[in-house]
Amino acid sequence: MTKLEYLKKQHNLSSAKLSLAAGINYTLLTSIERGERKAYPKIKRRLAEFFNVAEDDLFNEDGSLKEIED
């Protein structure tokens, strides 16, 4: 499970709701969630600010999502 998945569950958010609330394109967000794309700085910042966490809590250095223990 990624940290983003965990936070979405905690806030009862779907990818569609998160994309609207954070101002991120839905297709881009789901591509990042599936590991097909890396998040660029603007997206990392928006998601971190939305969840009030550090970017390093959500993303690896290369822009991929961080995995956490279930």
TrEMBL record:
HTH cro/C1-type domain ranges (all copies): 4-58
Highest taxon of the lineage: Bacteria
SUPFAM superfamilies (alphabetical): lambda repressor-like DNA-binding domains (SSF47413)
InterPro entries in the cross-refs: Cro/C1-type_HTH, Lambda_DNA-bd_dom_sf
Pfam families given in the database record: HTH_3 (PF01381)
Name assigned to this protein: Helix-turn-helix domain-containing protein
